[in-house]
Amino acid sequence: MNRSGFWFVVPFLVLYAAFLIAPMVIGLGASVTDEGITGHASFVGAANYAELFQDPAVWSSLGHTLVFTVVSTPAIVLVGLAMALLANRATPERWLYRLAFFAPYLLPVSVVVLIWSWLYQPGFGLINDLLTRLGLGEVGWLSTDGMAMTSIIITTVWWTAGFGFLLYLAALQEIPRQLYEASALDGATPFQQLRRITLPLLSRTHQLVIVLQVLASLKVFDQIYLLSGQGGVPGVRSIVQYIYESGFTRFRIGYASAISYVFFALIAAVALLHFRLTAPKASKGAER
Question: For the structural domain made of 26-287, what CATH number should be given?
Answer without folding.
Answer: 1.10.3720.10
